[in-house]
Structure formats: structure tokens, C-alpha cells
Structures
1.
Amino acid sequence: MNEADAIKALAAEHGFALHGLAAVPPGGQAPQAEFLAAWLAEGRHGPLHYVAQSAAARGNVHARFPWARSVLCVGAYYGGEPRGQWGRDFIAHVARYAHGRDYHLVFEKRLKSLARALLDAGHVTQARYYVDAGPVLERAWAQAAGLGWVGKNACLIHPRHGSFLVLGEILLDRALPPDAPATDRCGTCTRCLEACPTQAFTAPGQLDARRCIVTWNLEQKGLVPEAQWTEHHGWAAGCDVCQTVCPYNAPARAPQPDPELAAPRPWHGLSLAEAIGLSKADFDRLFEASALRRAGWKGLRLGALTAAGEVRQEALRPALEACQSDADADIRARAAWALSRLEAAKPEPEGR
Ligand code: SF4
Ligand code: SF4
């Protein structure tokens, strides 16, 4: 087995079903660095200030790691099956990537162990791992490493595993033979562009984060202007629409999900009404090691209230009314809005 294959075999042993190598060019420039620069220049990152702040490092890995020669890209399928009943169960209003144990924790542990194994085996003398939060253009590197292509929905799509994937990468100080980059297989399909409920795509693959529900309910923790509350289309945390419509995510094609990422979590039985009235203590207990901690206790309740304003179920009225005496003014305002939407949905009494 050559060195590149030995490294990828170690990645597989560490639980990464998808793995591939990309070469860092002599100048350190990341693939699709020009795309990132144009995206930022047009302001389409909106409130994602951390992307702009780390732009130089994202565009060129040598800005921080002049020793990087290769990128080992890894990924795993977290499971794309729907859970819960819309309007009744909180989980039905949550993007699927957040259903399982926080993938940052899962991947960090595996990547740390993998990096250690690569060092111990003498494959490299320096290794730096990242998952999501680092200044690495991870989808672009993953495409270069052959894991899939960045589709018109701006997600990385593997031809067999689809796009319900999480990614990680390790920068290595060893020049290794790269895998063949993946080629775009979107073809003439435009389903994701047409299905996006907020028209967040300005062109194929061009996402305007200012129009994306994920920005509103996770990055901005639900604290967005009232005009946007009706535009969440029932999503309490995240949004999966541009992925669920993708033919590469058809249920019949779904592979076996990563068992650690797909395992049930303590909050899965929570109803939408219970999420609205969630106490801080229950948030801390039920959402321990969950990616939903990113939204925070208040952000998660705001998301549930926003979803309630969309589904307009009478069964949610007691939970909404209870929020009217909540200590938090944002919670009170969102509950009052959801109640007004419930009233507006009532059938008119028949006239005489
Ligand atoms: S996540 Fe939702 S709102 Fe964002 S681009 Fe996809 S479909 Fe549109
Ligand atoms: S829905 Fe169609 S256009 Fe969009 S990412 Fe999937 S294959 Fe590509």
C-alpha cells in the first residue's frame, strides 16, 4: 500500500466513510478562492462576519500554515430521513444535521485521534485539523479531493451519499498524490433553486446568506426583524429545503448513516409546545452536546414560536398564551405575533 492509500485507510479506520486527498499548490491558494472573494465583495455573507474576518486565511492556507502541502478531506453521512410530525413535534422543524450529537464534537475527537495516528506512523511531521469553524474553504477542498461537487444548492454532493454530509479536514506537511477532483453532476436540474422558499439563490451555487433561513434562525439566533418572521416557512432551527428536493438525496439512494451521528438524542420526543415553554434547566439537560446549543436557549424558543406562527395549530394556544408573561420581551413579542396569526387563521363565524 502506498503512503496516500495508507493515510486514507487510517481515515476509514477512524470512522470517516468519505476521504480523499487534495494538493496544496505552491502559492497556497485554496480552490474557489476567487469565488469567496467575489461573494464577500458583494456583501452576500451578510451577518456572517467571521467569514469576512478570516477571508485571507480561507483563500490561502499558507497565510497561517506555510508548511501545508496536502489536505486530507473527510466526511460522513448523518442521515437524511425525516423525523417527527410537522406542527406537532419540534424535531420536524429542525434541520437534520442538528438531529444527532453535535458533529463538531464527534469529528473533533476523531480528527484529533487521526492526526495523532498520522504523526505516530511517521506519515507527516505536522498536522492541523478543522471541522466547520476553521478558516478553511472546506467544500472547495472536498471537491478538489474528490469527495463530491459543490452543487447549485451550494452544498457538497457525493454522487452516492448525497449532501446530508458533514466534513472535516487535516492540513498535512507532506506532498502526496491527490485524488481526482469530483465533477459537477447537477446537469440541467434546477430543483433547489426553485424550491428555496426565500429565493436565497441569486444564481446557481450563489447563496445570498442574508436571505437564508439558516442565517436568521441559527446565526442570528432568531433575532431578526418582524418582516422576516413569516418567511421562516415553519423552520425553527436551520432549513433543509434545498437539500430534500435534490435527487441525489432521494430516500432510495440513502446509505447507512454514521451510527454516532444518527443516534437518538434526549430531546427528540419534545413537542413544539414543550419547546416553546422550555426552561433553561431543561435546555441544558436535553441539549447537552447538541449542535442546537448554537442557537441558544432563547434562540431555540424563538425558533419554536416562529414555527408556531406558521403552522397555526389551536393545540399550541396554551403554550403561546403562557409566553405572554415571560420575562423576556422578545419571547413575549414573538408569542403575541404567533397568537395573532392563530386568530387570523380561525374560520369566520357564519353570518345570518
Ligand atoms: S437552507 Fe433554506 S433558505 Fe437557505 S438556501 Fe436552502 S432552501 Fe433557501
Ligand atoms: S437539486 Fe438539482 S441542481 Fe440542485 S444541487 Fe441537487 S442536482 Fe444540483
2.
Amino acid sequence: MKRRDFLKGLATTSAGVALSGGVGSLASTAYAKRKKEDFGEIKSLKVHCISETSWFDNATLGKSIKAAGGINTNQYDVDWDLNNLGGYAALLEVEALDGKKTKYLLDTGWNNDWMDYVFAKDGIDKMLKNKEIDTLIITHDHIDHYFGIESTLKHQPDIKIYFPGTSMKKSFELLKGADFSSTPGCPKNTVPHTGELIVTNAKKEFYKIQDGFGLVFLDAPATLQVHGENNLYFKIKDKGYVTVTGCCHAGILTLINYARRNFKDGNKNYGCYGGLHISVFENWDPKFDDIIEGMKTYNMSKIACNHCTGWVWAEKAAAAGLPIIHGTNKNLSYKKQGSLSHSHTSNVYTGNGDDVFFG
Ligand SMILES: [Fe+2]
Ligand SMILES: [Fe+2]
């Protein structure tokens, strides 16, 4: 798409749809006719970043992908460099209007050693064993969000799971117990899942998790033959909507526009957390400036980004006046850090061990 067309899209508030390239159905008349969803409100949401470093060095990861044939190779066919692997996961604590708190685990990372380490650091292992965590939500079956499934299941095999229906056949097999580890960096799971499994799909699309917390499945394209992602929306009383994402492959503007079109009071956008999938490999494209301009129009109060957002985009967004939440550098005390953590002092990422409070 030409940049001129992209800007035209911004003007008509369909920028995100244009960006995503794969969820064009959102603009269809079926959606226009749909009654606006009113799924209630919560008092607050606390997001704890367990780990946002899916890998530690971009160049090393890029080399593995290139050697396997490029970005469209099946993710189970790439020889990954084990020493470079981490994973993405977050703990979500939802406070209902009556004060009741419920915990959710968002994604389960990649490298089991790293996930065991970060889970132990934050007591996630004990929370799972004690059944303090209500549900595991897998955003999508990408390497860094899902291959570490054993790290969760070994503590609580019967945890309720939301899982995208577009996941690869091997990803479903992994859930039941399978071993793909003959390819370096590919997963094995010796603990079959025994609990409730909710497979999300584009037909139903909207899933209410609890009052004030909804999940929207969008079949957006991603790399390594993965597609489809579960995106989370929270409606905070008196504040507005918070969007929580794994990689945000559909595009952040798409997700904000989704709320605006489909949810009651959807134009109140309070904030977001997660990977925003913009300058993923710290490259730059003029379109990324347009995303900054687009996000400015939504008057959000808190933007907590990390993972595949791209440090360079987050820095530019902060300099342009977007309310980027700055991290605390706790991640520097972890046994490993992403290569960017050392070279940047601007702290524009919500890093490993950081909390963000929406309420
Ligand atoms: Fe990711
Ligand atoms: Fe992803």
C-alpha cells in the first residue's frame, strides 16, 4: 500500500484496518450493523510483566530465520539458537466492581529454562500450583508466546485455556503432549493439558471472560506461517477501554478502532499494554510516524509497550508526546537481558518485573 493511501485511511479512521492487511472484514457492513457490545466494567487492571524478552539478540534470531528460508518458513522447521531464547508472558490482575480480584496468565513464553526462571522469580509457579490463576490465555501460537507451554502445564495441567482456532496442527498436538525438540529451540511438552479448552474463532469473534473483560479473536496474518490472535479488552469504570496484546499482529490502530466501532462508549480509549508490532527489528518506515499521529487522535492516558513494539518507535512516540509508561530497569537484575536494554537508557519499555496499573 502506498503511504498516501495509508494517510487517506487515517483520515477516515480505518487506518488500522488498512495497516493490518488481513482483517478487512472488520470494515464490512456486517460489523456496521452489529449492536454495540456492552460487557460491563471493572474497577482496575494491574498488568505485571513477567517477561517481554522473547529473544535476547535480534541479529541472532534473524540469522536462524534466514538460514531456514526466511520469514515465511514454518516456525517448527527453524533451527533456533537455544541460548538466545526467552519468552513473552504477563500476569493480569482484574479487580471487579465489587472488589473481587481474579488473576489471568497471558501467554507462556518460549524457552522452558527462562520461563521456569521468571515464573519462580514472580511466584507464578506457586500461584499455578495453588490454583490462584483462573485461566491461561494464549494470544497466538507463535514461538515466543506458546512454545513454553510445559512451563505452565507442569504446575497446573488442568488450567482453563483460551486458544486460537487458527493455531497450527502441531500446536494443538503440543497441548496434548508432543515432542518437536529434535529441531533445536522447538518445543516439547510432557504434560498433556487436561482442563477446559476454549478454541476461539472468527465466526464467534467476541468472548466475554468476565464483567468488564472481553476477548476478540481476529484472523490477522503474522510471520512463520502463524495467523490469528486473541486480543484483550478491559473496560475500566470512569476511565475507558484498555487493550492488552501479545504481538498485536492486527495493528494497534485496528484494535482501537475495533473498540470504537463495536463496544458501548468505545471511543473512550484509556490505554494499552503489550507488544505493538511496529518497528520490530528496529528498522524505520514513514508509516511508523503515521501510527504515532494516529494514536495521538485517541487521547489515551497510558501506553505501556514492550516486546515487538520496537524501542525506536517507543522513543519517537514518547518524544512526540504520547503517554508512554517508562520502565524501572528491574530487568537489569535478571540473569539475562535483551541487547537493547543495555544500549538504551530511555526506559521506554515496560520491562521484565515492571507493573502497570490501569484504574
Ligand atoms: Fe511475539
Ligand atoms: Fe507474534
